[in-house]
Specification:
Length: 169
């Protein structure tokens, strides 16, 4: 790992990275809409915000694990909501809804990300307790880059629920 990436204050921006794989099995988590603390998948409301607001609303945020290759190493990084939206193109709740309506769409989303070249700004966790570097920002390098949701909509169409990924291209 680059020394700059291990310090809390210095983000690291390799000239380019290639996405080798994306873990789309568990790409989002439930969070409080007010404070954005993570919440259990099937639990109740935020214990902190529920003191002030009865039944605070919840939402889904991205937590996308990516395996990326730089010019000299392979890393596993995590892209949270703001960075992941650049690649995926919609809020997490919209993508989760799309994937639940179309069998295999989450897997296809991971396949669509494979091979994308991007400029990532990476940083260690603020608390220093995270296993993976965090993606602070993403800049796709391909001229014709389109977020994943646009390609998924083309592949699966409006009324179709199962399309073979290999036949779509």
């Amino acid at each position: 790992m680059k020394p700059e990436a291990t310090t809390k204050q210095a983000p690291w921006t390799p000239p380019f990275c290639t996405i080798l794989s994306a873990d789309t099995d568990n790409l989002a988590y439930r969070a409080c809409s007010l404070c954005e603390r993570s919440l259990p998948d099937h639990g109740g409301p935020c214990s902190v915000c529920s003191r002030r607001t009865p039944s605070p609303p919840t939402k889904f945020l991205y937590r996308l694990l990516l395996s990326i290759a730089t010019s000299d190493q392979v890393l596993v990084v995590v892209a949270f909501d703001r960075a992941a939206r650049v690649l995926l193109g919609c809020p997490a709740s919209d993508l989760l809804q799309f994937c639940s309506a179309h069998d295999g769409a989450a897997h296809t989303a991971g396949q669509l990300l494979e091979g994308e070249m991007c400029r990532f700004t990476l940083k260690a966790s603020m608390r220093g307790n995270a296993e993976n570097l965090r993606v602070v920002s993403v800049e796709p390098l391909r001229t014709g880059f389109r977020p994943v949701i646009h390609s998924l909509r083309e592949i699966y169409g409006e009324g179709e629920s199962s399309v073979n990924f290999d036949q779509a291209f």
